[in-house]
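Internal tracking record. Fields below are filled automatically when a chain is submitted to the structure queue. Please do not edit lines marked as system-generated. If the sequence contains nonstandard residues, flag them in the REMARKS field before resubmitting.
Queue: standard
Priority: normal
Entity type: single polypeptide chain
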Amino acid sequence: MNNFGRALSALIASAAVITGTASCSEKNKTKPSDVRPNESSTETSRADSAKKPTGSMEITWLADYDLNRSEGERPAALAIFEDIYGGKINYVQTTPENKLSKLEEMLGAGEEVDMFPYEDGVFPEGTSRSLFQPLDPYFEELGMEEDGLWDDIKDIAEIFKYKDQHYVVPYALSEPYLLTYSRALFSSLGIEDPYTLYKEGKWDWNAFTGMINKFTESETSAHHFGISGFYGEAILASTGHTVINFDGNSFTNNIGDPYIESAEALMNDLRVRWLYNSHWSDMYLHDQNTLFYCSRDWTLPISDKYNADYDIMAVPFPKTPGADKNYISCRANARMLVNNSEKGSAVATYLKCERLAVTELKDSAKEQALKSITEEQYNAIQDYLDPSKVTPVFDFGYGMSSRMYGNGYYTFESRGVMDNITSVLLESGNPYGNWAELRDRLSPVIDEELAKYNN
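SYSTEM-GENERATED OUTPUT FOLLOWS
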């Protein structure tokens, strides 16, 4: 092992850093922890042949959150980047709402920006506006061909391949949409555990609606709901089909797809039967009046804390009947290389550090997670984010203009196409009647927006 490889191995094994793969929206939901010594002593082969890249490793990062120290400690990726590669991240702060406009402003003024967060609105909109450049010339610095480093997530990068170039290279998946429930409640009703059905490959829409029907038919004095939380995006993803199809070069309108229609029909059915509880909460409420609560996984620790006696568990949204795969909605964690940046090598090296933190510090990440959720919950979520066991679905309609994704959540006009597709049929008294009417209202808007991208 060369000296550089030894240093990297030692840092991975014993550095005191923050671990975890929190995405942008989770940046304030995780607590720092120390990596325990020697946790990765058997996983240092990737460091054995590591070579230190040349050139400046100083990066300017524009975002609404800092990648540097938090509460006096360093994130794992930063520790590797600083101590092994001699890197440095200069943080330029902006607001969540103004990130893209701030980036355009800085580029127009000739100011240096090298790295930018990947999130909704960045791809394909930002790419089509020439705000970013591909990472393909820097695959060596990424370690793309290093044995095992990217193997389990390489195919995810291919989903984002745009005109034979890789602008988005995710280093991890995070924030799956989950259905949280109480095993204690299910047991009292004689309903089979959804997690058991998931492991047996039997967790589908039929099982889901059958449970809801049994629960709501057992009403006593209070009305029973089948589900609460926001589940429109989750149910659409569970079909494995997207509203916007993408072949790597052009986008097509798929709003008329029968699988999309079936998801919308299920949403509408639960609403019109008054089985959807529209009351918003940031956790599962064990009031015995609602069977499932849908949200991203960051609410699970809150649900556990306030429902300690009710054996809380979570599963992905069920698959469509007859499907051979579980399709899920989740986040792709990635960073973008800004157009005109001369620090492509440094940005790619930092991305490799993010990937090393994910793959080499699993034990410490688990130890931190077990402070707020159970080991069974943690292991289940790892399965739900494992590309060999589930298939993540990314609908690029969420990454387009405000007409597609919206700039508010209050009116039909301000929400945009994708928000309306996943929201309107959940609302009581919506003015659009049924899916066919809503589809016909939104389809021309999609066509107009896609014409801008395809031309």
